[in-house]
Fold this protein.
Amino acid sequence: MKIYNRKGFWSGIFFLLAAVAYIILLINDPHDINTVSNVKSIFFAILCVLFGVSQVYRGLDSKCTKEDEQNDDERRKLVTLKAESSAFKITFNIFLALTALLILAIGVTKYKGLMDLTIYNGLLGIFVGVAIVPSIMFIAIIGADIYHDRRT
């Protein structure tokens, strides 16, 4: 018998051993008479056995292994796509908030008459640097939208 998916096979063996150990511990503890605890323990052991048998079977069957690899590849692509999208949105929102705070800081320093040129020029320089990032990101969003709209 050939093992096609070693990771799945050994995780199944691990769950089967965990179920056996859990049942042995449940039998060897005569002082625990709590019914709810016993029902939970038995339910957990049954789940471990079912999951273990399923994983061992999928590790030994070539068709199931190919299906698992395909599903894992699709899942990995989806997770990567969602992570990149979330990172883009978070970065965009952080830089928008920083831009708004810098506009507020520049307005306060100019309004209060605190015209210390080094502070004012420093804030303007930081504002320009920070404001460029969401501008480029916004242009990238528009460009990607146009590109994907034409392709699909």
